[in-house]
Every structure is written in C-alpha cells, then in structure tokens.
Inverse folding.
C-alpha cells in the first residue's frame, strides 16, 4: 500500500526531514569514524614511545632472568611481556595478574613489529605492539600493551550524545519545516478558498496578488487572467442566449399571431391558405436559424477538418459562381484576382462556407452596379490571404470588432429584411479560425469594407 | 392526360405508387403524436397505407408480425431506440428500405444510422414534400429510370440533348436553369421544397448558406423564360413550402 500524505506542506516537511536525517546520519557516522581513527593513531604513537622506553629499561640479570628497571609499569599504565624465541614467557607485568597478552603466539611473531587489538579476560580492550628485541645477545620478543578503555569510553559517549541529539534535532527541524511550509503555502490556501467561493455570479472577483514577482504571485496572475477569459465567455454566452431567444421568439410570435387571427375568420379557405403559408415561411426561418445555431454550437467543439491541398483561387471562384446570380440581379460584378499558384491545405467545405458568407455580405451591402473584388495572394509572411472587398457603406469604427459576434447587426431593420439573423460572419470567423487563420476587417465609412482571410502557411500541419 | 410523361424503362407510373398488386405498406415509428398523425395523413393522401407505432417496442413488434414495404423510423424513441430496432431488423437480414428521422443534426448520428443499415435520413424539421420525395426514391430504388423526355402541358424537355421547348418556341437555358427545370418536371405535380433543390440540384449540404436567395433568383429567371410570354403559367410558388410545376393555378 502506498501512503501519500494529503497536504503538500506535510509532504514537503517529510521530504525535508528525510533529507535532513540522511545528512545527519552521514555526519554522525563520519565524525565517529574519524574520531576512532585518530584515537587509534594517537594510541599507536604512544605505544611506540612506551616500547622504546621499555627497550631501554629491559635488562638481563646475570642469572639470565629478564627484569625491568625504572619505576615499573603501573605508573604509565603500560603492560609488558617478554618472550623467549622458543615460546617461553620470561617476564610479565604484575598488572596482568598472571594473564598473558594473548594475541598471536610469540614464536610466530615475525621479526618486524606487529600491532594487534586484544581483549583481556576482564573485557579490557588492549592495543599490543610486538617486536623482536635483543637483550644481552638473546633473541626475545617484547610485547607492550596500552589500554584502549578510555578512548572507547570517549567514543561511546560522543556516539550516545549524537544519537540522542538526533531525534531532537529532527523533531525541531520538522516543526520548523512544517511551520515554514505552512507559511509559504498560506497564500495558496487563501487563493484556493477564494477560488472556491467563485461561481457564475461573482466571476468579476479576482484573487489577491501578494507579490507580483514570486511564483505564487505568478500563479495568481495566471489564474486571474483565466478568470477574465471565463468571465468574458460567460458574458458572451449570456448575450448569446438572450439574443437567440429573441431571434427565436420573433418568428414564433408571427406564427402565433397569424394563426390566431386567421382562425377568427371562419370558413375562408383562401385566407387559411394565406395564413398557413405565412406560418410556414416563419417555420422555415426558424429552421434555418436553428441550423445556423447548430453549426455554431458544433463549432465550439473543435471540428475535425478534412484537409486537402487546394488551389485557393478555384475555391474562391466556385463560391463566387454560386452567388453570381445574386450580384447579377443587382447589376454588380464579382471580380476574382490572384495567383493560381496559391494553395493551402484546407477543408474545402468549411472554408467555402466562410467565403460564401463573406461574398454574400459583400453583395448585400454593395450598391447596385457596384464591384465586388476578391484577391487571392500570398502575403509577405508567406501566409495565404483572401480579401473580399465591397463598395458598401463601410463599417463604423465602433462596430468593427463586434461584427463577428453572434446576432450582431449594424443596422437591425435592414439585415432582418434580408432574412439574415446576424450569424453569417460568426460562422465565417469560426470556419477560418478552425483552420488556424484569422479575419481582418478594413473599412472606410462610405467607401466600402475589406474582409481579409489570412490562413497560416502551415495550416495543413499542426505545429510540432 | 396532360401531365403524362415518358419513361423508357418503367413506363407510365400511376400517382398512387402500387407494388404491382397491392398498396404500399409503410410503418412509421414516431413517438411525437402530432408529427406521426400528420405524416400518416400526408402519406395516405399520397396513396400509401400507413401504420403508426408510437414506441420502440410497438414498432419492433409490428415489424415482426407484419410485412411492410418501407419503415420511417425516429431515432429518439422511448423504450427501444431507433438504432436498436434498426440493428435487430438488419440482423434478420431484411432488405426493407428504412428512412430514419433524427432531431440531432450531428454527423455521428447520421453516420451511426447509415452504418446500422438505414437507407436514408432526414433531419428534423424537414419539409413533408421532401419526406415524400425520399420515400418515392427509396421505393423506386433498383429500378433505374432513364427519362429522356419530360413534358408538362406544352413545355417539353429533351434531356439528353438538353433542349427546351415551350409551345413552338425554343427556350435558351443556362446549365443550372436546365437542371432546375428538369428536377421540377421530374417532380411535376408535386411540391418541391428549397431544401430539396439545394440538396439535389445545387448539391449544397448546408442550408445556413445564402442558398435560398440563389434558388429564388433562379426560379425568377426560369419564370421569365418559361412563363412570362404565356398566359398559362407552369411554375407556381406554394407559399412557405416551395415550388410546383403544373398546369393551371397552384
């Protein structure tokens, strides 16, 4: 089972404690190792000094007995043994109380010196230096030992001190770490609480940014930006819903009124026929409106484009030829200019929809005998561009950014007469954006407008 | 008979479509009572015998118990959904033509319907005239009709030569105008909706386009060429529904 603490601050603290414990353990370990090494070195150095003293003090009595001169061993704490080459014990310190220093059998001691650690029966740890020595021409093995008890004791005390201190240090560090983590994360908590309170109603509120430059401030700013976008979409949605209901209500009212009024005129088949026809016209308008809304609602999900490498001018000509009769009726001309070499990977059906809507608009708003000019070109940035220019009244500056909004009409009365619901440009924009492109509007009041579709060159291949 | 026309392969076909010895049986599975009743009346007027089923279960039962020549199936039904019925029907390997009705204009829906074995689909709200036309087309299926000459009153279309005569005068038509007139004449005596024209003559799938205006302009031009110089008008507008070609007033 995998245990995972719920809070980031707990996780942070635990991580921190883990690392800290590791570091402390390493530190304690190396301190103890270093201490024991330097103690041993110091002891060995002393042992050598004692050995030299002992060498000077050893004398052989005329009877062949080896004896120790000077003050004896007790004072310096050293223990001495002298062995004959054939393995007989010739001398031993009194402090040994008859025990031997143990260790390797003296006969096998090589002529050069050896250092060993041994332990007496009373658990006193000893360090023993053995070396060959000649006294009065006799080959002897001399062994000098010093107790390691004091060093062991010091080492143990230090170790215990460190080990008992470790949990305390870790506990203090843990508390401190937790406090720090909590302190650092507190703004995050506040942001979360704030975000929790957000609903569709108070989307206008923003998170407090405590420090613009640190990571949390950055987070808050990013969050606020998203909030602003969501608020915008919500507002748009609200407007859209209101507009859509209005647009749906208008034909519904007509149907209802026409139907009711016709019913008040009994037994008049012609009147009925007229009324039903009129109602069906409104139904048709409703169906078309619902159809457009469906196109746009599907547009909100990213459409799967069926892209093909296409000659754009052909696509433009195709769209223009469909609508040519409409221009023709008004005595207008549609001219298509451009380089047949300009191609792009596009979904012909969807992009054509955009073109048809733009050209239809151009025809609607251009005066009789006007000219609608369509230019297909590859612009400096090597993107493909299609510009549809009309000779209409132009779009006031204030309306330019809004003409693509759903149901937006510059002139209510006029476009309604044409049967448009104000969705044509929204659909065009959607179709172009689905290709990763954009539509620019240039307009001069009284001198016409130009809608320019710009398609990225790589529209066929998503980046990366 | 003034409205007769010549069919090379199947010859003259009566207005009430009969399958040689009996009336065509149509099952409509549709839960919306108003729509179902209107469809029943409309199709009965066209000369079919219509049975209604208002739930999926009922439709399923009727399909097992009786023989139908065509099924009109709503995809969204209480109980068994239209797709389930269609699936079981096709599993029994019945070659009955099935026309599905869907209120969801999602491509996946249509694809699912057609994949499951539907022969055609219509998206609600549809024009009744279009439903009638689709049903006729499905019932005709397999029998190719090559019509070489279409005639209404003194208007005559020579289809292979793409020539049009009204009375003793040749009429010059553009390609689109000819296609439009041919379609109207093929459906002579029946109302043709703008949806049908957009789809079958212009091959436009999307009605959000300004195609209706284009259709209206073409109809106006056709009238100018075909009807203006004559007292008896052939192309009539049925308000709110579409157009009809026939002799006399609409």
């Amino acid at each position: 089972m995998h245990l995972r603490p719920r809070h980031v601050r707990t996780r942070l603290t635990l991580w921190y404690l883990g690392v800290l414990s590791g570091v402390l353990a390493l530190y304690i370990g190396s301190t103890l190792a270093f201490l024991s090494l330097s103690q041993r070195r110091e002891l060995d150095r002393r042992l050598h000094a004692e050995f030299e003293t002992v060498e000077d003090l050893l004398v052989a009595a005329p009877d062949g007995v080896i004896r120790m001169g000077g003050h004896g061993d007790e004072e310096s704490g050293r223990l001495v043994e002298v062995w004959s080459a054939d393995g007989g014990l010739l001398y031993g310190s009194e402090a040994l109380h008859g025990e031997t220093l143990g260790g390797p059998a003296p006969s096998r001691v090589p002529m050069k010196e050896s250092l060993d650690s041994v332990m007496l029966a009373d658990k006193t740890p000893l360090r023993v230096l053995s070396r060959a020595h000649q006294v009065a021409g006799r080959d002897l093995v001399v062994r000098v030992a010093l107790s390691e008890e004091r060093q062991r004791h010091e080492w143990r005390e230090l170790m215990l001190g460190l080990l008992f201190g470790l949990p305390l240090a870790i506990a203090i560090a843990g508390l401190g770490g937790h406090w720090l983590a909590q302190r650092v994360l507190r703004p995050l908590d506040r942001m979360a609480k704030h975000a929790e309170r957000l609903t569709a109603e108070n989307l206008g509120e923003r998170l407090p940014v405590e420090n613009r430059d640190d990571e949390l401030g950055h987070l808050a700013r990013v969050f606020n930006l998203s909030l602003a976008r969501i608020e915008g979409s919500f507002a748009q949605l609200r407007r859209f819903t209101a507009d859509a209901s209005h647009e749906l209500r208008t034909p519904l009212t007509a149907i209802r009124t026409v139907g009711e009024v016709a019913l008040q005129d009994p037994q008049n088949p012609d009147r009925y026929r007229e009324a039903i026809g009129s109602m069906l016209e409104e139904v048709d308008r409703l169906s078309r409106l619902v159809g457009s809304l469906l196109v746009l609602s599907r547009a909100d999900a990213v459409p799967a484009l069926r892209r093909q490498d296409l000659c754009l001018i052909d696509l433009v000509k195709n769209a223009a030829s469909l609508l040519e009769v409409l221009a023709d009726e008004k005595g207008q001309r549609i001219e298509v200019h451009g380089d047949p070499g300009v191609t792009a990977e596009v979904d012909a059906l969807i992009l054509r929809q955009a073109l048809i809507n733009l050209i239809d608009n151009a025809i609607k708003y251009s005066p009789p005998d006007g000219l609608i000019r369509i230019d297909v070109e590859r612009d400096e940035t090597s993107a493909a561009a299609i510009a549809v220019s009309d000779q209409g009244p132009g779009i006031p500056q204030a309306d330019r950014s809004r003409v693509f909004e759903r149901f937006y009409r510059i002139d209510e009365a006029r476009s309604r007469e044409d049967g448009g619901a104000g969705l044509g440009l929204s659909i065009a924009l959607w179709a172009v954006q689905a290709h990763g492109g954009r539509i620019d509007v240039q307009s001069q009041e009284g001198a016409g407008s130009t809608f320019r579709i710009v398609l990225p060159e790589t529209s066929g291949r998503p980046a990366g | 008979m003034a409205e007769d026309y010549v069919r090379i392969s199947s010859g003259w076909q009566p207005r009430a479509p009969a399958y040689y010895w009996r009336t065509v049986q149509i099952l409509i599975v549709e839960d919306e009572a108003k729509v179902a009743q209107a469809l029943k009346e409309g199709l009965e007027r066209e000369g079919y015998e219509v049975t209604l089923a208002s739930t999926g279960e009922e439709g399923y039962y009727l399909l097992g118990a009786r023989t139908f020549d065509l099924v009109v199936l709503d995809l969204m039904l209480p109980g068994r959904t239209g797709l389930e019925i269609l699936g079981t029907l096709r599993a029994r390997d019945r070659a009955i033509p099935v026309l599905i009705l869907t209120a969801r204009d999602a491509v996946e829906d249509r694809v699912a319907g057609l994949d499951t074995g539907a022969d055609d689909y219509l998206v609600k709200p549809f024009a009744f005239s279009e439903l009638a036309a689709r049903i006729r087309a499905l019932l005709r299926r397999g029998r190719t009709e090559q019509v070489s000459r279409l005639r209404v009153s003194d208007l005559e279309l020579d289809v292979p030569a793409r020539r049009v005569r009204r009375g003793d005068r040749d009429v010059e038509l553009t390609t689109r105008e000819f296609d439009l007139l041919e379609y109207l004449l093929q459906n002579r005596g029946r109302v043709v909706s703008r949806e049908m024209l957009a789809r079958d003559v212009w091959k436009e799938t999307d009605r959000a386009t300004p195609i209706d205006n284009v259709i209206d302009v073409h109809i106006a031009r056709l009238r100018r060429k075909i009807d203006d110089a004559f007292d008896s008008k052939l192309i009539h507008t049925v308000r709110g529904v579409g157009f009809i070609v026939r002799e006399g007033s609409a």
Notes: Confidence is low (pLDDT under 50) at residues 1-16 of chain B. The first strand of chain B starts at residue 18 and ends at 19. Residues 211-226 of chain B form the longest helix (16 residues). The helical segments of chain B are 33-45, 56-65, 82-91, 107-116, 128-140, 175-186, 194-200, 211-226.
